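DM between two lab members

TW: hey, do you still have the MBL fold metallo-hydrolase entry open?
JB: yeah, one sec
JB: this one, 257 aa:
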Amino acid sequence: MRLVVLGCSGSGPGPASPASGYLVEAGDVRLVLDLGNGTFGALQRHVDPWRLDAVAFSHLHPDHCADFTALVVHRRYHPFPPEGAERLPVLAPVEAPDRFAAAYAPDAAERAETDLSDAFDFRPHAASATVGDAVLRTAPVDHPCEAYALRVEHGGRSLVYSGDTGPAEALVDLARGADVLLCEATWPHVTPSWDAPPPGVHLSGRQAGEHAAAAGVGRLLLTHCPPWFDAGELADEARAVFDGEVAVVAADGSYEV
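TW: and the structure you got?
JB:
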């Protein structure tokens, strides 16, 4: 498998990166995990959007899903769609159809009538689903809205994406023995504002490392670092508690799984 980072800036686009979005290439399968602000443009540098097999969303905050509206336009109004194009599967929290219709429609009248099922096959997350010959497993995590960590398995390899979460045993369980953990590290463990991170929102660099160590993953890739924090310092926090390889991902970066 291969991971391509479409964007990795935490909480919104930054000066060097779009918000969160990732392309996973698993054999012949092309699966996108999240489509935050600015990621649809980046996606087109790496794959024809018609080539996608599915899109999966960890949760429905804008920095993880805002560019779905651009995908709607592409799927609905492209002048040269491929012959036989079918609806694109969208695996997401249960409110995704309403959330995306509201984001796409420009006024109340159109919101009342908008139904994106002509172009998309919305499927609420299940514990396990198949996308081609890849398997997508999920686990609910600790965030202020319905949110999931996602595990992609293919050809004996495994990638786990934390999505957004505070400390969560479910993330450790889902990531157990994974080859790569792509994990958010949104803030330092200690700041002038707190002696320990606020619970139930995000992970510090140290907490990301602790989750990787507890799960026994092979490699830890840090993401979702906002532009107002030093990603290198967050990586140092993770290295202090995790003995494996730790790296901070970069927009347009490619990583073997």
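TW: got it. The first strand starts at residue 2 and ends at 7. The mean pLDDT is 97.
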